[in-house]
Amino acid sequence: MQLYTESQKKQLVKNFEIETRTGKMQKPVIKLFNPSGVGTWFISSMSEDETIAYGVCKIIETEIGSIDMVGLKKIKCPPLNLPIERDISFKANGYTIEECMQEKI
Predict the structure, then answer these.
(1) Residue 76 φ/ψ, nearest 5 degrees
(2) Residue-level pLDDT at 89
(3) How far apart are the two ends of the chain, measured CA to CA in Å?
(4) What φ, ψ does residue 34 adopt, rounded to 5°?
(5) Mean of the pLDDT values across residues 23-33?
(6) Is 32 helix (H, G, I), strand (E, B) or coil?
(7) How far is CA 28 from CA 31, 42, 81, in A?
(8) Rounded CA gap, 34 and 19, in Å?
(9) What pLDDT band is residue 102 in, cutting at 50, 70 and 90?
(10) H helix intervals, 23-102
């Protein structure tokens, strides 16, 4: 499965431009997760070259900041070597960054 669709990529890049210009984080467009353990990422924006994204990461602790998309795409989750997956039921722009940090979404 792709981590994001072409239309989601366009929105992520657009949000990146907005965030760069205004300094205000946009609402997450996609939710990624580890299918065999801990790890959830709510991504609000991404650079056009698809190397860096910004959003909320929940692994051991909840953090907000940059996400290495190149590294994330390479992850193979044990024990079955599954890749990181996208939550296809996640509603884009349905939650604020603050809600993603506090709630179990």
Answers:
(1) -125, 110
(2) 95
(3) 21
(4) -85, 115
(5) 96
(6) strand
(7) 7, 6, 27
(8) 26
(9) confident
(10) 69-74, 97-102
Question: Could you tell me how many residues make up the chain?
Answer: 105
**7, amino acid identity:** S
Confidence of residue 43 (pLDDT cuts 50, 70, 90): very high
Please, what's the b/e burial string for 78-103 (b: 16 or more CB within 10 A of its CB; e: otherwise)?
Answer: eeeeeebbbeeebebeebbbeebbee
Identify the three-state secondary structure at position 44. strand
Before 83, cis peptide (omega within 30)?
Answer: no
H or E element that contains 31: strand 30-33
Burial class from Cβ neighbours inside 10 Å (0-12, 13-18, 19+) for residue 67 reads: buried
Reduced DSSP (H G I as helix, E B as strand, rest coil) percent helix, strand, coil of the chain, to 5: 30, 30, 45
Does the pLDDT of residue 105 top 90, yes or no? no
Record the tokens describing residue 35, joined without a space. 């299918």
